[in-house]
Amino acid sequence: MSNIADSPANFFMIQALSLAKKALEASEVPVGCVIVNNNKIIAQSHNLTKANQDQTAHAEILAIKSACNFLQKSTLENCDIYITLEPCPMCLMAISYCRIKRIYYGANDEKFGAIESNPLYSFKNLAIFKSEIYSGINAEESKKLLRQFFKTKR
Questions:
Q1: What would the 3-class secondary structure string for 93-107 be?
Q2: pLDDT tens across 70-120, in order?
């Protein structure tokens, strides 16, 4: 991607960032996610672990469920996922099982990131289906929201 500012990836990541901001406003970890099929958003969510009292209510999991319901199928092989934060192992496995074609994400997650950041969770070892990976998209904006959230928790 030569010019990310003009790319569809930037547009969809901005949508994910707006969802992350909603999560922040709701005192949830600010992670947003959109799933795209044929250049159209078919599902979106942000973290809802507190609101749902469910630790599996990550943005990716909720968006995947919504996309599967929308397409009325259990796989999303012609879809792309845009996430403001590198997926954790749970979310990476869900993405992999759904056979999502491309993963775009913003900030790395040094503690729990399962794609590039943490050698304990190796994408190469965990993933059943190998999605294309694009990282660092609007990473600074994602990091800013995360810092803002965690600053209030310390």
A1: HHHHHHCCCEEEEEE
A2: 999 999 999 999 999 999 999 999 999 999 999 999 999 999 998 888 877
For the chain, the distance separating the N- and C-terminal CA atoms, rounded to the nearest angstrom, is 37
CA distance 68 to 71: 5
Strands 40-46 and 32-37: antiparallel
Beta strand 79-85 pairing with 40-46: unpaired
State the residue for tokens 């803002």.
Answer: 148
Task: Give catalytic residue positions.
Answer: 60
The strand pairing partners of 44, in sequence order, are 34
Positive or negative torsion for Cα 108, 109, 111, 112: negative
Joined together, the tokens standing for residue 26 give 């709701």
For residue 64, what is the enclosing H or E element? helix 59-71
